[in-house]
Specification:
single chain; alpha+beta; three-stranded antiparallel beta sheet; two-stranded antiparallel sheet; 4 helices; disordered C terminus
Length: 111
């Protein structure tokens, strides 16, 4: 269990450091908000974008964040494992949204 929590902490740190995403935005991140570039761009450090539109404190914070190569590798793995609409899934199984989500948020993805 400690190894899982350590891995989760490293994942949160990676996303926060590389993109500036906050915890609620990360927990509410759904698959439809992740877009990888189909072909490499001239700037190899840009592999796609995250559209942040859920888990916001204010609508004014809706924004797009760059996906770098390290984030792309991690996101691709999370997307493969997820069996629900969310990128970050519960430790109890990939078919459920992260346990930290409230029941309202888990039932209403457009919140």
């Amino acid at each position: 269990m400690l190894a899982i929590l350590l891995g989760l902490f490293q994942l949160i740190w990676l996303f926060a450091r590389h993109s500036g995403i906050c915890r609620n935005e990360m927990l509410m991140l759904m698959k439809d908000c992740v877009r990888f570039n189909p072909e490499p761009l001239e700037d190899a450090s840009v592999c796609g974008e995250l559209t942040i539109k859920r888990g916001l404190k204010r609508r004014a914070r809706k924004r797009k964040l760059v996906i770098d190569p390290e984030m792309k590798k991690t996101l691709a793995s999370l997307l493969r494992e997820s069996r629900c609409d969310y990128v970050f899934t519960s430790l109890s199984g990939p078919g459920h949204a992260t346990a930290a989500l409230g029941a309202r948020d888990a039932n209403h993805p457009s919140a």
